[in-house]
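The following block was generated as part of the benchmark described in Methods. Ligand: 6-phosphogluconic acid.
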Amino acid sequence: MNHTIGVYGLGVMGASLAKNMLNKGERVALYNYTPDLTEKFSEEFPHESATVFYDLKPFIESLEKPRKVFLMVTAGEVTDSVINSIAPLLDKEDIIMDGGNANFKDSTERFRLLKEKGIQFLSIGVSGGEAGALNGPALMPSGDKAAYDEVAPILEKIAAQVDGKPCCSYIGTEGSGHYVKMVHNGIEYADMQLISEAYQFLRKVVGLDVKEIANIFSKWNEWELKSYLIEITGHILNYDDPVTSQPIIDVILDKAGQKGTGKWTSKDALDIGVPASIITESVFARYLSSLKDERVEAAEYLAGPKMNCQVSDKDEWINLVKEALFMGKICTYAQGFMQYKQASDYYGWNFRLADIALIFRGGCIIQADFLDSVSQAFQSDVKLKNILRAPYFQEKANAYEGSLRRVAMKAMENGLSIPGLSSSLSFYDGYRASRSGAELIQAQRDYFGAHTYERVDKVGIFHTVWEGE
Ligand code: 6PG
């Protein structure tokens, strides 16, 4: 049988994507570096349009030209060694797609190296975990547009669909698809951090129990906050541990893991000059969480206020937290899309920000109704500098900034750590400050290092001979 596509890598994500392709009518060749997963696939999912291969050469030879090979393997060196093993078996114009969580710089390098050999390389951000891969992920493909056009009928068919449109569109050249996925993950980190702070506030400051909070998240999921992460938070908080019968949240160790994409987002924001403080604080919060033993000791010897669960009007505070969380989300996406905008200029990718927001409406971890408004903001004004400038977000920010301020102050009064919410507020106040305080930093730089400064009243570069210098 001639196959329309080959999937290399049959771990959870690769196998799920392959099943998705088969369910959508593709003829799929399957290969894994070790035979165990290949056997597992053929036992679990026998299909008339699927052929499993235990050797690379016949796997590649079974593909229709231009051959299309979708890699779903571990990012980094494994991806390079897989590419090195299949490239000699391919002809010019054949297409390799990498769906792993690759670093965009590696993807750009691979794109260039393979182009020299005449092989097309598409780096494809894939989001949505196992369920997304199986039922419809969000896809962020980049590389040469002509190569994308070859595979678009398959990718757009297997992607999540919202309002009849696929959550997949061509991002740009080089590794820009993996860049978009990277910042998606950075936003995911911030979204998760904000939600965890809202949960802690409701529990420790408002004094609600876990099931009450689960219900609140379910209700919030019917409001402007409606999103995958809010929905699963309600489910998680409702879930009891089968061993102890306690809420499972109380038996999960409070140390957050990470694979690195949030950190990459922050590093890139530092490199290209974007104030992505909420994402970066969320990465740091995970590092701080990992110091469990030190935190437990410090809880004994460092002073701070006792949590006060005596708020007089619980309903009022629940509403304030809801609005504060939405406000934090607005600030997070403001930063995330500032990063996309800056990256588009810096790397020369010409991003269509409205389309990126549309991809995120379904299939991915940050999927949310909210993204319709983000997309509309950029559709109405392609040159929009910041979503906070768009009428919808202006109106929401003006309505909810007071709630964020009250929740942040209350949390601080009670000694609750809120790096996500507080950096959202600092970003918001900093962004709307017509005079930032940086005038003093400039004066200090000039004082100790003659670094010069600009003036508000004259054009040019100035230096003061400071008295006593
Ligand atoms: C997705 C997820 C996915 C993965 C994260 C987890 O969009 O499907 O983002 O890519 O779950 O990379 O990242 P951490 O392990 O760093 O939290």
